[in-house]
Specification:
five-stranded mixed β-sheet, two-stranded antiparallel sheet, Ubiquitin-like (UB roll), 9 strands, alpha+beta
Length: about 600
């Protein structure tokens, strides 16, 4: 990091003086350094940076070599269309940590060809390429995905166990772990809590108090997938599997992009995800992805301010305290400090670090108080979160934890009762001769009112009967044509019209809600309630296939049982980074000779 800091400062000085190191007198024949001029420049800059002329000379030569290489790359690209790409390799694949790795290639080739070359040249078996925080699709060309001459690409390892066959990769472009995560959360996003709450797990989205939120079905599915990938990524981060974690976090980012800006403003998940992605960059020593890191931290800060209020006043009103969430700001300011340092802006780095140290002092906990709370039967997490919420006050923390426990218990009981009531209503309608699917759909449209649902079923009894007898049903060709004109497939259009008793408007909405595809899983209506923290009931058995149940069980393992798990940071890693930053920023000036 110190090298990056020094180079950034020198580049600013060179820019101010309009000095071009790639031209004479600094670069002479055969691209060799102009020794005397380079030495004079090093001696002039050394006092400004409080470094020795030798250190400054080495950094200047590194900048000069990069500039010469870039110039040669530009010339080669103009003449031959061969681009030079910088590769950010995994740590254990670098022969010399200080040496940069490059790859020369045309940009009109498939990513898979480049992946194969990198794997062969650097002894890497299974890898993905990341550009500006996006995973490049293996079956598309580099230039189709925004890769340009001199682009920096991050090389991310994928574990052998999660590597798919080439055919599968080309067809689906996702590793098995990501696929299974997506499928499992898709199943959960389609459940509406109408099945037996004791036996069938489902997910619900709740606000910061744990109350269910109502958002459009389309956004609910994207949000549940986004949070599912995020939780899987966080689970891998805890195991220090940062390569694989980043794969899942970037998938989460992709799903969040499908949610409306109003929704992203009301939940803090999106901001936490941006922090987690940059934290992975830091762990993988890939902070040369500066532009992407900077924009992610900016998005995180803006989102936190919208969700919590400028002075955390909104959070205080909702939660009654702000202490738990302060760990997120500590990590945000710490990463901002790190980026500022790498960019050569020491004063900004110090300013952010002072905010970090102030927060760290407040958030570090007294081990004796922790032990006392745990002796009362509270968990380590509850003790940590409680003390932070109450600024270290032992008595207040004990009361606060007890109150939170009671609130969660009451909320859980209300939700279970709501599901049981819905299940009983569906059973009542089924006893009157209607199928589970039709009963659930009618109840959904009637907002849970059994009498209204019965009226809906009576009004469409012929369609319901046709559905119960599994007959195809006849739909108007004119109405099918209307849906075809809107771009939907014939089979899906006919199915949607049968399900909505020939109502074109309802059929259109049904198809839009499900991206034009009505799979059997989607025919029963999903709930419209959603939230900022996913919670799940314990899985047991369900009416789905054993493979689907296995998938659901897998993904539920990654969802923490405690909704504030993401705030439960021990601050050990943060402490190490704070110490490293202080060392870098307090380096003793090296006197020039």
């Amino acid at each position: 990091m110190a090298e990056q800091n020094t180079e950034a400062k020198l580049k600013n000085l060179l820019k101010q003086e309009k000095i071009q190191l790639w031209n004479p007198p600094y670069t002479v024949e055969d691209n060799q350094p102009g020794a005397q001029n380079m030495q004079e420049l090093a001696e002039r800059y050394a006092p400004l940076l409080s470094l020795s002329a030798l250190e400054v000379g080495g950094a200047l030569e590194s900048i000069r070599v990069q500039a010469v290489k870039r110039g040669k790359g530009n010339k080669a690209f103009r003449e031959t269309s061969i681009a030079t790409l910088e590769l950010l390799l995994p740590r254990d694949a670098k022969k010399d940590p200080k040496m940069k790795s490059y790859l020369e290639t045309r940009l009109d080739v498939q990513v898979q060809q480049v992946v194969d070359r990198i794997g062969e040249e650097h002894g890497l078996k299974h890898i993905k390429l990341i550009l500006n925080g996006r995973t490049l699709a293996a079956d598309q060309h580099l230039d189709e995905q925004g890769v340009k001459n001199h682009s920096k690409m991050m090389v991310l390892k994928v574990s052998d166990a999660e590597q798919m066959t080439r055919d599968e990769e080309e067809r689906k472009n996702q590793n098995e772990s990501v696929q299974r995560t997506q499928k499992g959360f898709q199943i959960l996003s389609e459940r509406d809590g109408s099945e037996d709450p004791e036996t069938t797990p489902y997910l619900e989205i709740a606000d910061q108090k744990g109350n269910p939120l109502k958002i459009p079905h389309k956004e609910k599915k994207a949000l549940i997938l986004a949070m599912g990938f995020h939780e899987k990524g966080r689970s891998l981060m805890k195991k220090k599997q940062y390569d694989n974690a980043l794969c899942h976090l970037l998938q989460a980012d992709q799903q969040f992009s499908k949610c409306g800006s109003a929704l992203l403003s009301s939940v803090d998940n999106y901001a936490v995800l941006q922090l987690d992605i940059v934290w992975c960059y830091r762990a993988l020593e890939a902070l040369s992805c500066l532009d992407d890191s900077r924009s992610r931290l900016q998005r995180a800060e803006e989102c936190f301010l919208r969700c919590y209020g400028e002075q955390r006043q909104r959070l205080l009103m909702i939660q009654g305290s702000t202490g738990r969430e302060e760990v997120l700001f500590l990590r945000l300011y710490l990463l901002q400090s790190l980026l500022s340092y790498i960019e050569g802006n020491d004063s900004q780095a110090r300013l952010q670090l002072s905010k970090v140290e102030s927060l760290y002092g407040r958030l570090c906990l007294d081990s004796e108080k922790m032990a006392q709370l745990m002796a009362l039967g509270f968990t380590e997490r509850e003790a940590r979160l409680g003390l932070r919420a109450c600024q270290g006050d032992l008595q207040e923390a004990a009361i606060q934890i007890s109150n939170r426990r009671q609130e969660r218990q009451e909320l859980r009981q209300r939700e279970q009762q709501k599901r049981r009531t819905r299940m009983e209503a569906i059973s009542t309608l089924m006893e009157l001769g209607y199928s589970r699917r039709d009963a659930a759909r009618a109840l959904h449209h009637a907002n849970g009112d059994v009498d209204k649902a019965y009226t809906i079923l009576l009004d469409s009894s012929q369609a319901a009967q046709a559905s119960n007898n599994n007959t195809e049903g006849v739909v108007s060709p004119e109405k099918v044509e209307q849906l075809l004109y809107l771009g939907f497939e014939r089979e899906s259009s006919e199915a949607a019209l049968r399900l909505t008793d020939g109502d074109v408007q309802s059929a259109t909405q049904l198809l839009l809600d499900n991206q034009g595809v009505l799979s059997p899983d989607l025919l029963s209506p999903p709930s419209t309630s959603t939230s900022s923290s996913p919670s799940s009931e314990e899985p047991s058995t369900s009416s789905r296939s054993p493979e689907e149940n296995k998938l659901v069980s897998e993904v539920l393992e990654d969802i923490p049982r405690h909704e504030e798990d993401y705030l439960d940071l021990t601050l050990e890693e943060e402490s190490e980074l704070i110490a490293a930053m202080k060392t870098y920023l307090n380096r003793e000036p090296t006197h020039t000779v």
